[in-house]
Amino acid sequence: MYDFEFERPATIADAVAALGDEDAQALGGGQTLIPTLKQRLAMPGKLVSLTAIREIRGVCEDDEGHLCIGGGTTHAVVAREAADRFPGLASLAARIGDPAVRNRGTIGGSLANNDPSACYPAAALAANATVVTDRRTIVADDYFQGMFTTALDDGEIIAEVRFPVPEASNYQKFIQPASRFALVGVFVAKFADGVRVAVTGASESGVFRWSKAEAALSRNFTPDALSGLTVPADGMIGDLHGSPEYRAHLIGVLTKRAVSAAT
Amino acid sequence: MTQVSMTVNGQSVSGEIEGRTLLVEFLREGLGLTGTHVGCDTSQCGACVVHIDGAPVKACSIFAAEADGAEVTTIEGMAAPDGTLSPVQQGFRDHHGLQCGFCTPGMVMTATALLKENPKPTVTEVREYLEGNICRCTGYHNIVKAVLAASGQEMPAVAAE
Ligand SMILES: Cc1cc2nc3c(=O)[nH]c(=O)nc-3n(C[C@H](O)[C@H](O)[C@H](O)COP(=O)(O)OP(=O)(O)OC[C@H]3O[C@@H](n4cnc5c(N)ncnc54)[C@H](O)[C@@H]3O)c2cc1C
Ligand code: FES
Ligand code: FES
């Protein structure tokens, strides 16, 4: 691997200062970034590891009943510690990659990367989570801005992700067997004031909300409410794993499955 | 260069590393513990799995500096000092759970972590937990058998699909 500077600060403030250098990049669990560095698809001059910062790790609840997850919390910890409060989210975390990936990969890394096939973006968008950074808060509807693109500025750190907890939720992941990412994934979240449906893995513009399904499910939260609703194949990803039409079809199937699993 | 210290298989070790030194390089080249293998080098195959503070991690996808102060266990730490194999190692031996053996250190480390979390896993749970460990030789069947044997269970007759 090429040479770079390496820092491992213990506080958010020190990490933000270290990331002030133009050529610096944050390192979370490294499960995406380290392979990327090896291929030299990214070549920062300085890596700032976030793994020694205790204040961005762990799962807790705030006064308004939100589930607050530190940006440096691993998938394995979310799978364990969110299970009682938000089982839909815990089950999503438990199905990311494999056990070793889950012991390193973090929610902050996943949301910062915003891979179009990643799982967490679907949960964050469906539950209307708030991304709390070292400098501001960003609601999910403003945060995701297309494949691998987010509202984060250079050097901005995800300190926490704050999830409103739905009354019922479910994540359906149709696995792409080689990568173990989602070929298509659908997260359905039912709140007192309506239903949100977020789709990952399918669109060329990254994670998105399926608003027609949301309207139908907000009136009637049953799989039947989705009868006749389809997603146009236009703008869906087409690759050797599946055509745009196939992905569009899967969205309908998975949304129905998610609703029946959540009810 | 910076100094890193950790406990590896119960012994305190330290060494000079660069920021870019991967944990697997420190183990293999720094400490001569070549039991931990590198297959894909991109966190796909699991040949490099070691335990960090008891949890399985791919040593090709973590920098040595990140393991500073940690307790690391590698395949060399699995057998007892007198050479008695661990139950998982014995299971692999008894049930022909390996052919070329390249994937075996990672398989043993991952399976050992599974049995610590879940002492009596089902066949499906064994297969799911080993999802990140790829074997080109065995077709997995005898690996699953070995892990079940290590948990004191027998392979159900119908599990061969
Ligand atoms: C074999 C394998 C299978 C996988 N399967 C899945 C899957 O099924 N579903 C899925 O969703 N993902 C999957 N992943 C990806 C995994 O979840 C990664 O852990 C995750 O995408 C990146 O998180 P990380 O903590 O490892 O981040 P890193 O790799 O360290 O960093 C990724 C990016 O995020 C930035 N970053 C990291 N932390 C922060 C932070 N706190 N604030 C701001 N920026 C930050 C980094 O600068 C970098 O740009 C898989 C990975 C592997 C290797
Ligand atoms: S060598 Fe580490 S996962 Fe393949
Ligand atoms: S025994 Fe050869 S790769 Fe598994």
UniProtKB/TrEMBL annotation, chain A:
GO molecular function: FAD binding; oxidoreductase activity
Domain FAD-binding PCMH-type as annotated: residue spans: 1-168
PROSITE patterns (UniProt xref): FAD_PCMH (PS51387)
Xref: SMART domains: CO_deh_flav_C
Keyword field: FAD, Flavoprotein, Oxidoreductase
Gene3D superfamilies recorded: 3.30.465.10, CO dehydrogenase flavoprotein, C-terminal domain (3.30.390.50), Uridine Diphospho-n-acetylenolpyruvylglucosamine Reductase, domain 2 (3.30.43.10)
SUPFAM superfamilies: CO dehydrogenase flavoprotein C-terminal domain-like, FAD-binding/transporter-associated domain-like
Keyword check for Oxidoreductase: yes
Superkingdom of this protein's organism: Bacteria
Protein name: Carbon-monoxide dehydrogenase medium subunit
TrEMBL record, chain B:
Keyword Metal-binding part of the UniProt annotation: yes
SUPFAM superfamilies referenced in this protein's UniProt entry, alphabetically: 2Fe-2S ferredoxin-like, CO dehydrogenase ISP C-domain like
Pfam family name, one: Fer2_2
Keywords of the record: 2Fe-2S, Iron, Iron-sulfur, Metal-binding, Oxidoreductase
InterPro entries noted in UniProt: 2Fe-2S-bd (IPR002888), 2Fe-2S-bd_dom_sf (IPR036884), 2Fe-2S_ferredoxin-like_sf (IPR036010), 2Fe-2S_ferredoxin-type (IPR001041), Beta-grasp_dom_sf (IPR012675), Diverse_Oxidoreductases (IPR051452)
Residue ranges occupied by any 2Fe-2S ferredoxin-type domain in the UniProt entry: 2-78
UniProt GO molecular function: 2 iron, 2 sulfur cluster binding; metal ion binding; oxidoreductase activity
UniProt-recorded name of the protein: Carbon-monoxide dehydrogenase small subunit
Protein's organism: Tranquillimonas alkanivorans
